[in-house]
């Protein structure tokens, strides 16, 4: 099948199947009870009709991407002053005791000088089992990526999720395993997830391990919940997003509004870190839209976020952000191997 160029949604499911929804899409405010629908919303969950029901559903392997041309991008150098200012504000807020953690975003932008942005979709066909390819294309705007982070998978009363936090270069894996700051950041996420979900069922937390994602490694803890009762997908999405890895701790309306303000000041793409999911005949699967590329016309952006806690240091966080963006640009072949 020839690649559609206007309306398109792509997401890999845990079964290994990558579903493609082809528009035009019908929009709905709530999850349908049958069929296939994609969930597309911004980070603030401000979209009133986030459910996108496709005209046609196919598997990714059926799409012909061979005619797309390789992309060349002229990147603007990302300056640290804006991030440094927000980092300082977060530190001051932590010192006042108002928060323990927040997650600022730094975004590198560029302009397409040659090729077609849809050539990025070809990369989604290649990746390890640790990644979930995803994409949303609406005319000349869109985003795509390969995320390692599962928001949650819900099937027959069993909910699976994960804590994914703590980052290092792959070559530092040995010392990373004992890094107290990274372990502390990860435990913020894992313990908060377990506590917030314990009201909804019996929680089973797996062991913390290291997930190898090529150039970078993360701490990863699998979490499973056997639900006590029925809860709608829409309710669970609002409960689970943002995850402690992407949101503030504690998570209140006030601390969320602070985070939205900081993201806006740093020009974070609206869909970065947002839930992206697909409902298929009673089963729901959603990922966190990180490790991706966002575009509007010929303008392209690669965002990255980092968890800031009391032990965080500006230089280390800035380097972590660059490491994450470098991994994305390398994966999509739009930068040299070394930044």
Task: Give a brief description.
This protein has about 350 residues and is of the alpha+beta class.
Question: What this model shows, in words?
Answer:
With about 350 residues, the protein is of the alpha+beta class. It has seven helices and 19 strands. The strands form two sheets. Strands 3, 4, 5, 11, 12, 13, 14, 15, 16 and 17 form a ten-stranded antiparallel beta sheet that branches. Strands 6-2-1-9-10-18-19-8-7 form a nine-stranded antiparallel beta sheet, with helices on one face. The longest helix is centred in the middle third of the chain and has 18 residues, at about 180-195. The protein is globular, with a radius of gyration of 19 Å. The chain starts with 6 loop residues before the first strand and ends in an 8-residue tail after the last helix. The model has no long low-confidence stretch (mean pLDDT about 90).
List the helices and strands and how they pair.
Layout: E1 7-12, E2 18-22, E3 26-28, E4 36-40, E5 51-53, E6 56-59, E7 72-75, H1 81-95, E8 105-114, H2 120-123, E9 132-138, E10 141-147, E11 150-155, E12 158-169, H3 173-176, H4 180-197, E13 201-205, E14 209-212, E15 216-227, H5 233-240, H6 253-265, E16 275-280, E17 283-288, E18 292-296, E19 299-305, H7 314-331
Antiparallel strand pairs: 1-2, 1-9, 2-6, 3-5, 4-5, 4-16, 7-8, 8-19, 9-10, 10-18, 11-12, 11-17, 12-15, 13-15, 14-15, 16-17, 18-19
